[in-house]
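In response to the reviewer comment on reproducibility (Comment 2.3), we provide here a single inverse folding case reported in full, input and output, so that an independent group could reproduce the run without further information from us. The structure tokens appear first.
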């Protein structure tokens, strides 16, 4: 399965439109995950022209996002045996193997294989404690500047996965 990852579009404040380059970059994706700060559900409506979309609630959303069933504080999904969490802000992450029990935070006993997040407007991919953390950066507002930025592509196949950052041009 090919998944398009996007975050922090900040439309209509950073720009008025989703970059036209996304049509080519996300060509053939089976699903799009938006890691929050979309600002308005219109962004999800436009992305759905490319593939089904789910989103994490950002910290600066407009009121029309409140009742949209595509948006949750945290999305949890399993794709081909791989557990994926989608959140906007990565507040805390344990620096230990992902299957080790944490007596203080038992909800982190079973951490995901992949966690997609946003908020920083900086693209990163790192393995931490056995979990792949992916921040696709911002497609429209990287480093808080109104210009073309980055998205990511995630390939999941039979329990294996890999991600890459794509610079929009």
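Designed residues, in position order:
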């Amino acid at each position: 399965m090919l998944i398009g990852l996007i975050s922090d579009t900040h439309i209509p404040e950073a720009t008025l439109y989703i970059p036209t380059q996304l049509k080519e970059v996300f060509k053939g994706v089976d699903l799009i995950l938006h890691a929050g700060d979309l600002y308005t559900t219109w962004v999800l409506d436009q992305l759905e022209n490319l593939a089904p979309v789910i989103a994490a609630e950002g910290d600066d959303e407009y009121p029309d996002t409140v009742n949209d069933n595509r948006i949750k504080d945290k999305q949890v999904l399993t794709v081909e045996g791989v557990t994926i969490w989608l959140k906007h802000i990565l507040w805390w992450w344990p620096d230990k193997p992902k299957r080790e029990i944490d007596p203080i935070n038992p909800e982190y006993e079973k951490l995901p294989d992949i966690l997609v997040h946003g908020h920083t407007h900086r693209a990163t991919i790192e393995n931490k404690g056995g979990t792949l953390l992916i921040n696709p950066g911002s497609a429209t507002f990287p480093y808080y500047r109104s210009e073309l930025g980055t998205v990511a592509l995630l390939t999941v196949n039979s329990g294996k996965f890999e991600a890459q950052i794509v610079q929009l041009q």
